[in-house]
Write a structure and sequence with these properties.
363 residues, alpha/beta, 10-stranded mixed beta sheet, 17 helices
């Protein structure tokens, strides 16, 4: 009898303990506290975004007081909007987005599912004027600021220190084999001939190519090269300038970096960007996490570390710099007045016609 009674007591105790545990879990889930044990940031699937954030997830988790911070990725605009809608269910703190025609910034803001920046004045103070102008021109005016410009990857011309940057003496190397390269070229043309090509469509731009190519003195050999082939060609030949992204400088050897300089960017620049948005959350606790995240991501060292991991520059002008190239580019951007964004250029509808038109002009 005593044995049966002991078994009953044990079974009853086990049942009561299980019931209590389930009740506690239900309460924590209902109050949102269990979900706060883990949180997510959402990033593009390609472009080095995941690799640049991954090393700092533990540091970010400690700073924001979440036990685990993980990454979810998106590929399409539909995926991105789906994550914005599911921010509460997944405990998403922020999303990084390329400033690109593939992910229209106006559409993202018009969802009315974003949390505005809590300290927009701080963002403005740390963002170069030309970049403020670039972002504000891409989405409808609003009483609130919803985007935090985060990284940039400007186009630059480089030349050998042993020569001169003078475009009248050097021919310009421009790769045109990839869609990204062709968008860079169009954006560069708009920059060089500002303001005359500011809003010119592809068809009209093609008709202006003869005069553009004559003025730019483009090396006809370079248009058949991939960007990876352009750099060796540049170093093997004299009197050449080459158009590349700032991120491409990371692939240079130490010897190559010491052998080149960056030409002046001028008052009108061309650069790609990324920015952060913060999904709207329903609870005060979650909103406090987002406020903390916004403050933390404005720390100059944080912005620098994330950007440099993918060889981009931080938009934050207060961020530290570790090489003369970055210092020079940042100074040039602070002095710039206008900016074009290659990734916002429309896809060229007929690539074969585009390349054929250029090759014919060289014959």
């Amino acid at each position: 009898m005593k044995a049966k009674r002991a078994v009953r007591i044990f079974v009853f105790g086990l049942f009561f303990t299980s019931l209590l545990l389930v009740s506690i879990i239900f309460y924590l889930e209902l109050s949102g506290k269990l979900r706060d044990r883990s949180a997510y940031i959402v990033l593009p699937n390609e472009g080095g975004y995941v690799e640049s954030w991954a090393p700092y997830l533990s540091q970010l988790a400690r700073a924001l007081d979440v036990s685990d911070l993980s990454i979810k990725t998106y590929t399409t605009n539909a995926d991105l909007h789906d994550y914005i809608k599911k921010a509460d269910a997944l405990n998403i703190l922020w999303i990084e987005v390329p400033l690109s025609s593939d992910f229209p910034i106006a559409d993202i803001i018009e969802t009315d599912l974003l949390t505005p920046l809590y300290n927009p004045q701080k963002v403005l103070e740390s963002t170069p004027t030309v970049i403020q102008k670039t972002f504000f021109s891409t989405y409808p005016s609003s009483e609130n600021t919803y985007v935090l410009p985060f990284t940039m990857n400007p186009l630059v011309q480089i030349y050998k220190n042993s020569e001169t940057e003078d475009g009248e003496k050097n021919t310009l190397l421009i790769p045109l084999q990839k869609e990204e390269d062709r968008k860079n070229f169009i954006s560069f043309c708009r920059t060089t001939f500002y303001p005359y090509l500011s809003s010119m469509e592809e068809e009209n731009l093609l008709s202006t190519l003869p005069s553009l190519l004559a003025y730019l003195r483009i090396d006809k050999t370079s248009i058949n090269y991939q960007k990876s082939e352009i750099i060796p060609y540049f170093f093997k030949n004299s009197k050449k300038n080459v158009l590349i992204n700032a991120s491409d400088l990371a692939s240079f050897s130490v010897e190559q970096r010491l052998a080149v300089s960056i030409a002046s960017l001028g008052k009108t620049i061309s650069s790609d960007f990324s920015y952060l948005v913060f999904p709207q959350r329903t609870s005060d606790l979650h909103n406090e996490k987002i406020r903390s995240a916004q403050d933390y991501l404005l720390i100059p060292e944080v912005a620098f570390n994330i950007a440099s991991k993918r060889n981009h520059l931080p938009v934050n002008i207060e961020s530290i710099s570790k090489n003369v190239f970055n210092d020079f580019i940042k100074k040039q951007i602070r002095q710039a007045e206008n900016c074009f964004v290659p990734a916002l250029e429309a896809d060229i509808e007929n690539n074969e016609l585009f390349l054929k038109s250029i090759k014919i002009l060289f014959q």
